[in-house]
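User: My advisor asked me to double-check a structure prediction for Signal peptidase complex catalytic subunit SEC11 before group meeting. I don't want to rely on an old file, so could you generate it fresh from this sequence?
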Amino acid sequence: MMLFGVFMSYKAWGLYTNCESPLVVVLSESMEPAFARGDILFLSNPKQPIDIGEICVFKIPGRDIPIVHRVIDRHDSPETGSQLLLTKGDNNNVDDRGLYQELYTNRGKMWIEPKDIVGRVQGFLPYLGMFTIFMTDYPLLKYALLGGVGLVVFLYE
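Assistant: Sure, here is a fresh prediction for Signal peptidase complex catalytic subunit SEC11 from the sequence you gave:
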């Protein structure tokens, strides 16, 4: 019941923030010094246009892991109301155009669109996501923890 309650709370929070994934963990150093590896980011997805300087989490087709980077340029089309966005990690030397081209090789894409945005960063908790990173980097730790939890449930049942 407790796990069900946590899951439902997470989904309700996603509905409230209009974001399919309202929590993400920073997995790389590309956004330092703004965010360090292991920080937990709180996301929302308001309807307003995205501004230059906002930190967004976006997903590109063909890649499972979302990317956390800052919007450094945007092009608005008044006729269609669409936006084209260019992003860059604060700790990176170049923008993300090479990344877009690599993943959109058949279209030669140079920008991302608001439909690619998972959410906008609203706040963060430093280093609390390191647990997730350790579980990913060291799978034996994950199995040991699951085994320990299972053992506790079995013994105290």
